[in-house]
Amino acid sequence: MIYTHIPYAPRDHNLDLGWAYANFMDKLGIDDWACFMDHDAMFTTINWHQQLMDIISLYPEAGCFTCMTNRVGNPIQIAGYDMGWLANESDPKQKHRKLLYAKFDNHDIRNHRKIGKGLFENYYSDVMELDANHLMSGVLILISKKIWKTIKYKSGFLGIDNDLHSQCLKNGYKVYLMKGVYVYHWYRGDGDYSHVLQTLNLK
Q: How far does Cα 95 stand from its chain's mean position?
């Protein structure tokens, strides 16, 4: 069974997202899967649960999966992104941030449901392997209890998704981008980074 969960770490746990992940995983059976979603994200298609089940059955070697979206730190996960935009840039991360606001600032859910439907129909169960040079942005993380028990997870808030990806690779598990699963993500659409600064101040 797949259990979808929005992880939340209260103040008495110092916004420790790693703790929130582990706390939820402890509640699952050994054959269950967790689908972690960011609090500012949502599925854009109706049959996403069956789609995830089908993908899991096709790729038993996977350590975990992530999805396509509209706004995250990893440009490979963004639908319609041209990686050529970052070519020959001295600071590609800074350029990427600017591109998010210049080209991916549409928050009309009708538009995102249309994108989601298109990817669902064209790529359904297709995946792309993500290596250590393209660590996932964890707007969605789909992982099994069995895999979780074999890796070491990180405490804290920032970089939890990247560390989980690295741990999977370190233990010989593949990390896949589900090309047909599209999730809408607000991702600081108003430019508000206060939650990040708040987390840094807790350290």
A: 21
- pTM, whole model, 2 decimals? 0.90
Q: What is the pLDDT of residues 138-192, one digit of tens each?
A: 999 999 999 999 987 777 777 888 999 999 999 999 999 999 999 999 966 555 5
45-70 per-residue burial string, b: 16 or more CB within 10 A, e: under 16:
beebeebbeebbeeeeebbbbbbbbb
Number of domains in the chain: 1
Domain that holds residue 96: 2-201
50 alpha carbon, distance to own chain's centre: 18
Query: In the numeric block, which tokens belong to residue 149?
Result: 């028990």
The 10 Å CB-count burial string (b at 16+, else e) for 113-126 is bebbeebbeebebe
CATH, residue 190: 3.90.550
